[in-house]
Amino acid sequence: MFDLDRWQEIFNAIKQNKFRSILTAFGVFWAIFMLVVMTGSGNGLINGVTHGFKDFATNSAFMWANRTTVAYQGYDRGRQWSLTNADMETITEEVPEIDVLSPRLQGWNLREGQNVVRGERAAAFNVMGDYPQYRKIDPCTMPWGRYINKEDIDLKRKVCIIGEKVYEVMFDEGEDPVGQNLRINGVYFMVVGVFKSNNPNINIGSNKKETIYLPFTTMQQSFNYGDQVHFFGFTAKPGVNVQGLVDRIKPIIRKQHKISPEDEEAIGGFNVQSELQTMEYTFLGINILIWVVGIGTLIAGAVGVSNIMLVVVKERTKEIGIQRAIGARPALIVGQILTESVFLTTVAGFLGLAMGTLVLHLTDLAITAAQAQAPPDEMTFFMNPEVGLPLAISALIMLILVGLFAGFIPAMKAVKIKPIEALHHE
């Protein structure tokens, strides 16, 4: 490896056949370049998709009522029914593995006209009833004031918290909204806080930035919802499978509301844990595909290097014969061929790694600049395309292995050359 004469011979061989050496190295360069770019792009997709719900409770699920699709106990199919407060109490008692359960009311939305008034300002916003526990499912920060608390629920206080967009429309920039009143569908509520979601890409029931949240019990009483619950979210205790809890909750609800055990459509739901697992499997499949394509391309490059090295061995047949005739050991011949092969693949591979990393870095700068100019509400599905140190180390190991593989067959052929035949070779 540290024989100066050997390296001089390798460099002379490359200089004498520059074009051939470039073509030989290009296959390996392109393979590593594509592997780095595709892997970085895959990571960028994963980063973009997961960024929007990084703080959302991944061990959660949501359930709601749909029309029945099976006739049962004298009730016709297509019956409309609702979840109730009693359902929440029963579920909490019979399924102790639930960590957090938060019922919700979904009131008015943007399509129903201007339902929020403050002085001369009027606008249409989503209105929902909530429990303070919901913040454990979908965390948020409070730029102004506080979140809904237990006393608001127990005392049925006429207070509310508002999203960022509601604040922008109903208040002046920099104005403190805490303590100010909003008239929501004819009823006055005092603003106690402004919230900013930590998970902007996830909106359950409404766009959070354009939503006003009231205490759940206050909304039931003030707007005559009785004991209705439009839907509820829950989280599982550590180590408990969410789908297992869903399968236990559904029979409880069916029994409470006389729904057929065979009616799979009457209870709607969304299992966040299952959806995230599906996404993880999808990302895993993408990464496997990237590595299969990259390694396949790398092998193709190695075959090209091996073929060129066979040509090199054939051109040096007489030279190898002379070396063998004056006493060169087989290990010396093998080392010479393998060193040249590894050198070509390693240099080409490192150039591909550097070029791929540069392309990803420039892409990241372009995306960052575009996001800075984009509206704050715009969702991001691609960000921080990057490759880490493990990939660089893996690439280095692969390059060495590819170089050894590409030079092994030519080296073995060189060793088998008999000195007498080599000296007579033309």
Number of strands: 14
Structural class: alpha+beta
| Distance, first to last CA | 30 Å
Helix-residue proportion: 40-55%
Q: Number of helical runs?
A: 13
Describe the sheet with the most strands. 12 strands, mixed
How much β-strand is present in the residues? 15-25%
Q: What is the radius of gyration?
A: 34 Å
Overall residue-averaged pLDDT value: 82
Characterize the structure shown.
The protein is an alpha+beta fold and 426 residues long. The chain contains 13 helices and 14 strands. The strands form two sheets. Strands 1, 3, 4, 5, 6, 7, 8, 9, 10, 11, 13 and 14 form a twelve-stranded mixed beta sheet that branches. Helix 9 runs antiparallel to helix 11.
List the helices and strands and how they pair.
Layout: H1 4-16, H2 18-51, E1 60-65, E2 83-84, H3 85-94, E3 98-106, E4 116-118, E5 121-123, E6 126-130, H4 134-137, E7 140-145, H5 150-155, E8 159-162, H6 164-170, E9 181-184, E10 187-197, E11 211-215, H7 216-222, E12 228-229, E13 231-236, H8 242-257, E14 267-271, H9 272-315, H10 317-325, H11 330-373, H12 389-415, H13 419-423
Parallel strand pairs: 6-11, 8-10
Antiparallel strand pairs: 1-13, 1-14, 2-12, 3-6, 3-13, 4-5, 4-9, 7-10, 8-11, 9-10
